[in-house]
Every structure is written in C-alpha cells, then in structure tokens.
C-alpha cells in the first residue's frame, strides 16, 4: 500500500505515529470489549479450568499467528530484520524476565497492556501501576537499572548462527507457522463455543490478534517508503510505555514514532469503548497493603518486560506470531511465573495460601523448639 499522500501531509515520523495511533485505538477498543487478559487466562488455566479467559486468549493468539504467517508466506511481509529476530537474543533475559513479568502481572492484576486498558475506564489502581511500570521500564532501558539489566541479559545469549526464528531453527517447512496458527484457532473456536463466548468476546479477541498483524503490515510497508530507517515492529507495551512517558515529560526526549502513537491510541480506544458500553467506573485502592502489592507488581513488570524483550503482548503475541525463540521462552516463563505467584499469594489451599501455610508452619516449629522452664524448689 502506498502511504505517499500521508507522508507528504504529516511527514514520515508523523505518518508512522498516526498508524500507531489508529491501530492502538482499535486495539484498545477490542481489548476492552473482549476483556482480553493474559493474567486472567493463566490463573484460570492453573486452577485446572479452560474457560472463557483461556478461550479468549487462544483466539487472540491464533489470529495473530495465523495472520502474520499468512502474510509472510504470501510475500506481503518480511520481518527478518525486526528486533524480535535480530542478530542475537537473550535466553537468560527471556527466562528471568518472563518469570518476573509473570509474577508482576499477578500482583498488579494485569499486564502492561491490560493496565493501560483498565486505566482508561477509570481504574486508578491501574493508572498508578501503569505509570510506575513505565517509569521502571525507562530506568531499566536507559536509567539506573540499565547495568543490572545488561548483566542479566548478557549471561546467556543465543546468536544468529542458525536463525532466531523457531521454525527455521527446527528445520520445519515454510508453511508450518500457518498450520500451527490454524490448529490453535480450531482449538480456540472449540473452547469458545463450549464456554458460550459473547459476540463481543469473539469479535474483540480476534480483533486484538489482527491488530498485531496490522502492526507488522503497516510498519513493514512504511519501512521501504521512508528515507529515515523505520523499525519493522508491532504491538508491545514495555518499551513504548517508557518512550511515551519520556515524550510527554520531556518533549524532544523521545522521537515521534509508531510506539509513541500506539500507547495514547490504546487509552483512547479503551475509553471510547467503555464510554459507549457504559462501563466507565472510578476505582481506587482498598488499603495500604493492596497498594504495596501493586507497587511490587509494577516494578517486577517494568524490569521483567525489558529483560524478556517484551510484555505479555510484545512477547506473547507479537514475538509469538514471529516465532521468535526468545519470545516463546519468555511467554512460557510468564505462564510459569504467574502460576507460581498465584499459588503463593492468592490461591487458597484449604482456606490458606502457600505463604500463609508456610508462615503458620514456621510459627509452630518455633513454639515446639521452646523448652519449658524447669521449676526447682
């Protein structure tokens, strides 16, 4: 597609940001109406149930994978030069960052994208956590936490010897990605029908996945129509949240690009969807202890997302649709970290979480070790 008219009118950077804005608005609206959330899907799965939340996530994931791989096979998309498939990847960052991010999204009750969507509907907890998430991501990218991130990420690197794309690495056929995406779609449709998803859940879940495809397609076509280098990328919210925060705090501190258009777009789309569906509602913190929980969650996600090379959407959907090895490792680690954190902090076993049971066991052991005093006459 030719974007020459838009480039002449808004400039290269402005057109790229406009594309991010439009796709972000659609993403936010679809995510709000479908209640798409990786955290909810993970918790549902680890509780031994494949219900509506898992079905929605599977629909979104399969739409992103099948759509992206179909464009690649048809020659409409080339993502070999994208950051997801760069010259090296960090397996240590994917594992540790994925575990941290998974733990954080359980503590903050949502991933970076979900917090942005919820903040637009009036959830002040999500707004606070999202801002802190962006600040920690910026500190991990270019600030005080950057040396620690570099150290962890550099511990185990995967070089581009045989490719960082999973299908090529395993030597599978060119159309394998499409087959995997379609297989996931069949499974998702089965569980969607079984769980009686609403019409908006179907539309929104598939719509979120297609916005990932749209992001790839738009930035790829922009990359060869601009004189300035344009990164081929799609939906992700860790780095973009940090860049957008710096753009609004220090004009000129971050360039106008796809990411800077994406984040405000998601906020606007979610707000409009909530407004027209009459689901806007102000919500705040219940007490101080709950606020501490959200703080830890946002910090874990900010650092974890930068280590993992993406958030639940960036690694889970965008990286997953590109079959990036590190993205799939990060996604698996997010599921593991979220499930473990839920078991330790939230999930009750016989009325108590694992942490509470361990605390009680420790107290009982301490009492049993106290020897009674011997009274002598």
* Helix and strand composition category: mainly alpha
Helix proportion: 55-70%
Shape: globular
Low-confidence stretches: 372-377
Question: What is Rg?
Answer: 22 Å
Head-to-tail CA distance between termini: 99 Å
Largest sheet: 2 strands, antiparallel
How many individual β-strands? Answer: 2
- Give the rounded overall mean pLDDT: 91
Beta-strand level of the residues, as a percent range? under 5%
Walkthrough of the structure:
- The chain has 377 residues and is mainly α.
- Helix content is 70%, strand content 2%.
- It has helices at residues 4-34, 38-46, 52-74, 91-107, 112-120, 124-142, 146-153, 166-170, 176-194, 199-223, 238-249, 258-276, 288-308, 314-321, 325-346, 354-369; strands spanning 88-90, 157-159.
- Strands 1-2 form a two-stranded antiparallel sheet.
- Helix 2 (38-46) crosses helix 15 (325-346).
Could you name the key traits of this structure?
disordered C terminus, two-stranded antiparallel sheet, single chain, mainly alpha, 377 residues
Summarize the structure.
With 377 residues, the chain is mainly alpha-helical. It has 16 helices and 2 strands.
Strand and helix map with partners:
Layout: H1 4-34, H2 38-46, H3 52-74, E1 88-90, H4 91-107, H5 112-120, H6 124-142, H7 146-153, E2 157-159, H8 166-170, H9 176-194, H10 199-223, H11 238-249, H12 258-276, H13 288-308, H14 314-321, H15 325-346, H16 354-369
Antiparallel strand pairs: 1-2
Helix pairs in contact: 1-10, 1-12, 2-3, 2-15, 3-9, 3-10, 3-14, 4-13, 4-15, 5-6, 5-12, 6-7, 6-11, 6-13, 7-13, 11-12, 14-15
